[in-house]
Design brief:
- The strands form three sheets. The protein has a five-stranded parallel β-sheet, with helices on both faces. It has a four-stranded antiparallel β-sheet with strand order 6-7-8-9, with helices on one face. It has a three-stranded antiparallel β-sheet with strand order 10-12-11.
- It contains eight helices and twelve strands.
- By secondary structure, the chain is an alpha/beta fold.
- About 40% of the residues lie in helices and about 20% in strands.
- It starts with a strand and ends with a strand.
- α6 crosses α7 (about 180-190) and α6 packs across α8.
Length: about 230
């Protein structure tokens, strides 16, 4: 999933981005309200972490402008202020949650996950079943059915994936049967500013094939990768 952080305290923003990236999210960061509004309006983000006191345009206005334009992306507002009035104003502009600085990073991650789960509950089930494979995009866990013996049903065995491996798999699962380009995977799993070797995607595809089965992910030459729909 892809997150946008709009925060003018650069050390805080970069610290949050580093931590959330380690959690398996692709994270973009901007430090100005106008930039944040433009990026949130143009980008396909799953959640926005939005500070209130920003140069260019404050967080209240960014949030209300996004909502007025019909954008329903979950918004978690951050502020150094405290008090019921500030929280009420933030929620009135369309924010989904509110966190007062200083805050615990653990609490922020819990709020982010809760908002993403809440959004997911309004749509299809987060558990995707592909043959003997089950991928839970909410819990970020993968299970594979063991072979049944003596006529009994096999048990599900969890397959351990790294955060990046799961993020790559998630992009394929959400578009099962479709061709997903290397560029799409880079944009959503890493971020828009990634300047490393694009062949890093192939490394993670190879790792997934080793762990989940070589036949699961097909390479479509010149186009990308396709997660096969089991017959």
């Amino acid at each position: 999933m892809r997150l946008l952080i709009v925060e003018d305290e650069k050390r805080l923003a970069l610290s949050l981005a580093k931590g959330l990236t380690a959690e398996g999210y692709a994270v973009d960061v901007v430090h100005d309200g106008l930039d944040g509004l433009h990026r949130a309006s143009e980008g396909s983000y799953d959640l926005v972490i939005l500070d209130i006191m920003l140069p260019g345009m404050n967080g209240y206005r960014v949030c209300s402008t996004l909502r007025a334009a019909g954008h329903d992306v979950p918004i978690l507002m951050l502020t150094a202020k405290d008090g019921e009035y500030d929280e009420a104003e933030g929620l009135d502009t369309g924010a989904d949650d509110y966190l007062t600085k200083p805050f615990s990073y653990v609490v922020l991650v819990a709020r982010v996950k809760a908002l993403l789960r809440r959004r997911g509950n309004g749509g299809p089930s987060p558990v995707h079943t592909l043959g003997d494979l089950k991928v839970d995009t909410a819990a970020r866990r993968v299970f594979r059915a063991e072979n049944a013996e003596d006529g009994e049903d096999g048990e599900d065995r969890e397959v351990t994936l790294t955060a990046k491996e799961f993020a790559v798999l998630e992009q394929l699962v959400l578009r099962v049967g479709e061709v997903v380009s290397k560029g799409d995977i880079l944009e959503h799993v890493w971020d828009f500013a990634y300047e490393g070797d694009p062949n890093i995607v192939e490394v993670y595809i190879s790792a997934l094939r080793r762990k989940l089965g070589a036949s699961l992910i097909k390479t479509v030459r010149g186009a990308g990768y396709r997660l096969e729909t089991p017959r």
